[in-house]
Amino acid sequence: MRALGLDIGTTTISAVIVEAEGRKIERSYTIANESFIQTKFAWEKIQNPDIILKKAGKLLDEIFEEYSDIRVIGLTGQMHGIVYLNEEGKHISPLYTWQDGRGNLVDEGGRSVCEILKEEFSVKAYSGYGLVTHLYNCRQGLVPKGASQLCTIMDYLGMRLTGRKTPLVHSSNAASLGLYDARRGVFLRETLKKAGADISLLPEVAEDFTCIGSYKGIPIGTAIGDNQAGFLGSVENAADSILVNMGTGGQVSALTKDFFETKGIEARPFAKGYYLLAGSSLCGGRAYAALEQFFRSYAEAAGMKETDHYAVMEKLLGSRAENTEKLKVKTTFSGTRENPEKRGSIKNVSVDNFTPQALIYGVLDGMAQELYGLYGKMEKGMRMPKGKIVASGNGIRKNRYLQEIMGKKFKMSLQMAEHEEEAAYGAALSGMIAAGMLSLKEAVSI
Does residue 437 surpass a pLDDT of 80? Predict the structure, then answer.
């Protein structure tokens, strides 16, 4: 028997075929998402659901032509974003993604939706979170006519595959929309209503991994957030391990039974009775990509266009003098969740360390330090200390120097996640749990 995991990411759509008994990936697929819609607003980040559904459907058709013994389908995808649906369960809006910036736009009174929520209701929520987007749209009269419900893009895919007309959203995705009480498992309906949001569009929520219907006779599990799916697909012993992910952004996560939140740390629902503590760096791997672009732009201006700058950067790291005083780089180039206006910095510059090697190392060290600082906050809310780092994401998988820096920074042994498509693999496992083919204890040893 086999399980299929599907991940609707921001830039790619991925799928894996998992052999159920041994839980090994037999084959993986990745295609470009390429559904962004160009608009006249730099802050608006939206995607076309029709393109996403068409690409995902085509991929599934190709898979089912090859595999006839798939017994369950698990779903995951980009968290936080929303799509509006009509009474028939069909989308009538674009996908407002997690990158959308309307929550930080100031109104006639000089305040943003995020500031209003914080100042008037003592609620911390960030731009890009679906219910922040929804609240802004309600206040500005931008909710599409005929909208009767909303959900994430992976929940919507599950609806279209199963023929459902209403979404059933896992608590991991519900919480990712913001204005959700993870401890009680409910949306902050009164706050939303008082702030000016239409709460009749809020979806039904499920706390457990469960099935929402079937596609071609195959059960489909509730879609789970990609943070939770990535953890499920990477960590085999949650009692002793943390997960560090470095992709476009960065994230450190740990599983616990204790609800704990503090500045920069969220307690995200995982499964009933368990929370995934998560701290995120908005820039993450983009910091290293920005540095590569910096070197690239200079080289191209000097007439050197056909150069693998990442390879050159790795070579320079290998030639770095160990006793050179370090540059102190803060890689908050895209701000933080708490302070979007915050920017990075480069300090401790001298004539001896103002070199490409020191700058490259400093950026990697800054990327690691940002996550380590978040883990330091997180650690205060956990009863049991962790002893191992499981690392995932191409930003660290393809950079052995970052792996070394991260291990030293945390003072823990570091191992790479076994599977590269961690979220899609985790989605497959969540589907197996929903279908009764696997227990949560078997999946992550809790």
Answer: yes
Nearest to 212 by CA among 170, 269, 151, 180: 170
- The CATH topology of domain 236-417 is Nucleotidyltransferase; domain 5 (3.30.420)
Q: pLDDT tens across 80-111, in order?
A: 999 999 999 999 999 999 999 999 999 888 99
Any idea which residue has 């076994």 for tokens? 418
Quick check: 209 and 222 in contact, CB under 8 A? Answer: yes
Q: Which residues contact 159 (CB under 8 A, 6 or more apart)?
A: 85, 89, 151, 165, 166, 167, 212
Structure tokens at 36: 């962004």
- Greatest Cα pair distance, the chain, in angstroms, is 68
Cα distance between residue 320 and residue 358, in whole Å:
7
Cβ pair 240, 357 in contact under 8 A: no
Per residue in 333-372, pLDDT (tens digit) is: 988 877 888 999 999 999 999 999 999 999 999 999 999 9
User: Domain-by-domain residue ranges, the chain?
Assistant: 2-228+421-444, 236-417
Task: Transcribe 268-315 into DSSP letters.
Answer: EEEETTEEEEEEEESSTHHHHHHHHHHHHHHHHHTT--S--HHHHHHH
Q: What class, spelled out in words, does domain 2-228+421-444 have in CATH?
A: alpha beta
| Pick from 270, 246, 249, 247: nearest CA to 258 | 270
In the chain, pLDDT over 90 holds for what percent of residues?
88
